[in-house]
Every structure is written in structure tokens, then in C-alpha cells.
């Protein structure tokens, strides 16, 4: 039986030298097949030993209500909130009901009385070790479940990233460097969100949603997107529709990620001073994910080659952001962006254009 194998490998810590050397106690351990036993003189020595060694059962002698062993019990009960502690079996004097109740209230799993009843002692030791066996099996199950959930979550994240990436590339159909552009925008958006103090989950979602900022461009004709010269008023109006169309395409979905992408698609052309589109939002009424993506998208567009322009230098692009802070862009976010320019340039270097 599995419990027999567990008993043979179990390690017992006895916190009281007389108990550890008691012939009846040793006989009960031997009868249960337990050979790994270590004794210490007091609870302080036991605490030190438990920091470095692994035990499956602690046997603790309680001689009075003032015993330091009660403090040890309380400390182990608190520690077991984080990690399951070895079960504690207390040894008490006969008829000390109050002490027995106190020990059980502090987390002892069972008790034995002196003088030892050999059969009862052996059964109670085995029962306590069965608790430890169950703890270990549950811990193993939890770890395996956590590993499987993590692997499945990673698989879903990778699949989501791949879908978003491919859809974003379709949206950037006029840009031969779309693959790297959308990655850079996502990475820079994550960086800016983090430096602005957003939580890890929102930073995670912004990085994955920002590449879809131009999903509404699917509605704009290729001729307009590839036009090298200035757009006519009619063409410009068609391009400006992409923000609202992007929100319409992605909106009304339960997924927090898709909701974030819809917000970014709708708001990344809003301006801090209220002169942007599609809704003329102003200041902090523009959702922060839209304000973040606006800065990252413009910066990356300026520093990248386009059919109608050569790439700007990083410094010129930064100067533009600073000049437009308070007009086009959130000035606080621009300051964060500039303050972490080294990290921004690292993103540009890691994901360069290929054409």
C-alpha cells in the first residue's frame, strides 16, 4: 500500500529529547516502519532546523500551559498559511484537558498522553502521517494543474497574438513594413503604459491591442492609402472615417482585449486640445490607451520610411512630440516617453524595418 512506502520514507522531528529517546516511543516508530527520526532539545532548535530541513511530522512535548512549545505551535500555525506545515502531534500529561484543547486550537492535529499506549501511539502517528501524505499529493496535484493551466494560457496568448498580428498587418496594407511597425507600436505602448503607472494587466492588453489601432483602414481604398501626394478633402474625409469604423468593427464584445482594441481604434486620433477626430474629445476625457497609442504611432511613423517621406531622426521626432505636447498629445505622457527614450530606441533597434 502507498501509505506503507510513505511511512518508510517519512522524516520525523521530535521536539523534546526525553520523548525522542523514550523506548516506547521508538518502538512505536519502528513498528510503523519509520526510521528517519531527529530529536532536538527545545522549540528554538526546532525552528532553526525547520528552516533548512524537510520533515513529515513534528512531535512536540507540552509539559505546561506556560511551555514555550505553545508559542512554537502558534508560530507554525501562522507559517502554514503560506505553505502547508508538517502535522504536529503533541505529547501531554494525562487529564490536562485545558492544555489539550489549547494545543488543538493552535493547530496540533492530534495528541497522545503519557504513559504511552503503544497501539494508540502507533495509530495516531500513522494518522498524522496520512495527513502529510495527503498534503503532499494535493501539493503535487496543484503544481501539475498550475503547470497545465500556464501552458494552456501561454498557448491561447500565442494564438491571440498571432491572430491580432495578422489582422493588424492586413489593416496596414499600404505599408511594406507593417509587420515591424505594429510590433514596435505595441512594445512602445507597453513601455509608456508601464512608465505612466498602469498595472501589469492593462500594460499587457495595451501591447496586444495597440497594433489594431488602424483596423478601420480596411474600409479605405488602396489608391488613397498608396497616394504619394497630398490627399484631397474628400480623400481625407474617407481616411478619417477609419477611427469610427475601427470602433464599430471591434465594439460590443465581451473580451477585455477586444474592448481595449476598440477604444484605441476610436481614440488614437483624438487630440489633447479637442481638435482631433472622430468625437473631438479633449484632455483626460480621451481614454489613456488612446493617448498612449497616439504618441507611439506618430513617433514610429515619423521615424519610419513611408511612400511619401523619408524617415525622420529620433531627435527630430522627439522634438515634434515635445512641440505638440498640450496640443496633439498628453504632455505628461510625452514627458514619460522622452524620459525613457533609451528604452524606446532599444525597441527601434530590435525591430527594424526590412525594406
From TrEMBL:
CDD domains: HDc (cd00077)
Keywords per UniProt: Phosphoprotein
GO BP term, pick one: phosphorelay signal transduction system
GO molecular function, one term: phosphoric diester hydrolase activity
Domain HD-GYP residues, every copy: 156-353
SMART domains reported for this sequence: HDc, REC
Domain Response regulatory: 11-129
4-aspartylphosphate PTM positions: 61
Gene3D superfamilies in alphabetical order: 3.40.50.2300, Hypothetical protein af1432 (1.10.3210.10)
Protein name: HD domain-containing protein
Gene source species: Denitromonas halophila
Biological classification of the source: Bacteria, Pseudomonadati, Pseudomonadota, Betaproteobacteria, Rhodocyclales
